[in-house]
Design a protein that fits this description.
The chain is an alpha+beta fold and 140 residues long. 44% of the residues lie in helices and 22% in strands.
Length: 140
């Protein structure tokens, strides 16, 4: 018996929706105090991004290659997060999580004290001798 066209179209739409969910990316950004962005070399900026990416991947259970982070000056005006209206920060840590099935889950992990504590600790270690620490690192 041949499938009705309506069912075939519904199956195709469902498959397309599932692909869109699997390939969805989520932005999750952190504002930080205690880091002098201008004192970071290009290599240190890359190291910060890699360090934070590894922490996020471990905490979310995602593959390391699906998490990308980059540090910017605290007043960075990102297209997805305009600086106007944000609290003053020393650094803006932008993260992109690929294959994000649930933006709410990622946001929940980012807001959680466990990930924030791990990020702060990792950054304190990574930047200990850099001259970029201007106080205790904190996420605001």
């Amino acid at each position: 018996m041949a499938a009705r066209p309506g069912i075939a179209v519904q199956a195709l739409l469902l498959a397309a929706a599932m692909v869109q969910i699997v390939s969805q990316s989520c932005h999750a950004d952190l504002l930080m105090k205690g880091i002098n962005y201008a004192a970071l070399s290009q290599q240190q900026q890359q190291a910060v991004g890699q360090t934070v990416s590894a922490q996020i991947a471990a905490e979310t259970g995602m593959a390391a290659q699906d998490v990308m982070c980059k540090i910017f000056a605290g007043n960075y005006n990102a297209a997805w997060s305009p600086s106007q209206g944000r609290p003053p920060a020393d650094a803006f840590l932008a993260s992109l999580v690929n294959k994000c099935g649930s933006a709410e889950m990622v946001l929940g992990v980012f807001r959680g004290p466990q990930l924030q504590s791990k990020i702060v600790s990792a950054l304190q270690s990574a930047l200990a001798n850099s001259g970029a620490l201007i106080g205790t690192i904190s996420i605001i």
